[in-house]
Structures are given as C-alpha cells and as structure tokens.
Amino acid sequence: MRIAPPPAPAAPEPPPLRKIIHIDMDAFYASVEQRDDPALRGRPVAVGGAGERGVVAAASYEARAFGVRSAMPSSTAKRRCPDLLFVPPRFDVYRAVSRQIHAIFAEYTPLIEPLSLDEAYLDVTADLQGIGSATAIARDIRARIRAETGLTASAGVSYNKFLAKIASDQNKPDGLCVITPRRGEAFVATLPVARFHGVGPVTAARMARLGILTGADLRQRSLTFLRAEFGKSADYYHMAAHGRDDRPVRPDRERKSVGAERTFDRDLTDEAELLAALDPIVDAVCARIERAGAAGRTVTLKVKYADFRQITRARSFAAPVSDRASIAAAGTLLLRALCPVPRGVRLLGLTLSALEEGEPTNQLGLAL
Fold first, then answer.
1. Where is this site: Substrate discrimination (predicted)?
2. Fewer C-beta neighbours within 10 Å, C or N terminus of the chain?
3. Same domain, 138 and 164
C-alpha cells in the first residue's frame, strides 16, 4: 500500500506591518531660544560659540536660508550671514523640554527609541488610545507638543523606520508626511540616494561614480555587486532600495558613541596637512555631541592608510568631557604620535565614547 507523504508545513504568515512614527523637532535648540526670547523671533539665530573656534550646534530656519548649517564653523556661518545672532547653548533647558516631549510620547506607546534630544522613533502598531490610525496619532502628538511647549515638530509616518525618518523631513518645518505600504517602493525609486539615512557624502559620491543616483538605480544592482562595493552596509542599502527595513523600534537603545570621519580625495602624508584635515572632523564631532546633549570619557582616533590597513588609537579622560578644546587636544596628541606616515592616509575619524548625559565641561587640564 502506498503511503501518502505528510503534508508540507504551512508557510509562516508574514509579520504584521508595523506602524512607525518618526518625530523630529524643528530647529530644536534655536526654536527654544526664539521661544524664550521674543527679540530673537524672525531673526537668523545660531546656537553655539561665536568665536574663531566656535561651531554652530543648531541654526534657525531664518539662518538656514543663508546656508548656515549645524557643524559649520562659526566664522563661516558669520560670513554667510553677517546679521547672524549667536546664542550660547542651554542644555539644561533643552533636556527639560525634551523630557516634556517624551512624556507626551509615553501616553501613546511604550516603544520609544530616542535618537537625540530632538528626535525619536515611536512604534504605534498597538493603538493604546484607540485613535484609529498612525497618521491620526502623529497629528495628535504634534498638536500636544505645540500646545504644551510652544514648539513645532515634523512627523513622518510609515511602515518602517527607514521610510518614517525620510518622511519626517519631507514637509519641514511643522509638516506631516505619510508613506503607505502601497507607495513605499515607488517613493524610494525616485529618491536620491544622498537622502538615504546612512548614506553620507563620501558614499553618495562613490555611488554616483557607479551610476547609482536614485533608489531605482540602487535597486537594479545585485546584492552580490553591492556587497563587493560597500561591504557590510550592502544589505541595508539593498533592503532600503526596495522600501524594506526590518529593524524594530528599540526602547532600550542607548547611544554609545558620537563620531565623524572623512575620506580624502588624495592620500595625505604631511603632518601639518593631517592636523589641518582633523580640524573639521573635530568640529563635526563637537556639533553632534552638543546635539546629543552628552559628554564622554574616551576619544578614539581612526586612521585608514593608503593600503587600506586600518588602526585605532584611544585616550581616556578622568572625567567626562564635551568641549572642543579637550577633544581636539586628544585627537591631535593621538595623530601626532603616528607621524610620520610614509604610506599616506586616506581616511581619518574621531569618536567620543563612554557617553553620559551632562553639561559641557572643560577638562583640558586632566591627564589623558
């Protein structure tokens, strides 16, 4: 007697689509300053140091119209906008406002993943208040933020983190953008790859040299090709090009480090050139530290040589630091210890780690 084979196991059901909101406060630091000082309203404002070594931590939309951006040296910002008003940062105030905003989030979901003081992902798949849709929840949250803090927020709503973050930037300031599952792939197809979260200027330029300018271009390249060109980032690019992103919202996410790096158009060997190249990297790191409202104990220098060999060197402070002078001094010390560099350097990076929340401090006198 012939025995029938057992039935094939049923294919697992795909997980339900998530409902993700990305909330991004509009020019957060500058908007707080304009809210608290009526004399600043409607005027170009930069939060940061006005001195020669100062860096813009945040710029109002009036300042952005002149090309002023965060992480820009203050001297450059002043040249672009002669009427720019500099305001020293008040991180205690920004943190207090951020706590207000997060308390609002918590009324809608426990799944909150903060990215910095002024932005966060929310997973509202479970509609705790029975509002009816993620779009309606986003509208409600934005209205609450305006009513309770006097500030505006932009929101992106979609079925994954990648698209929600892009959507929040679509209609800034004070905007809302929704990307539904039906629109996801088509939306990504027309999107410049330079706008993909995680694709920096260097990677975007490299993609352009390969003929990859949009999501549609990226989608046409095989995963094998992308892995050969972009290594461990390839899987993310491949998924994103198809409008997919499986990363969950992680409420326990903790920022472990803040850093920046630059790849140079030509290999650098001269010590003075290398130290000059480190300077804007320090500026970028400090701007991100200010944005995160954090301080850290360990400065790490990353060096990639012309032959692609990569090394790191680190020094730790006795207490957390966040001021530019301390970070620049540590980076300079680490870089000088590696000179001369006969092979040449194609990339420099600098990272501050062992982070904790805290006021900017000056620990230059402490031993490294």
1. 29
2. N
3. yes
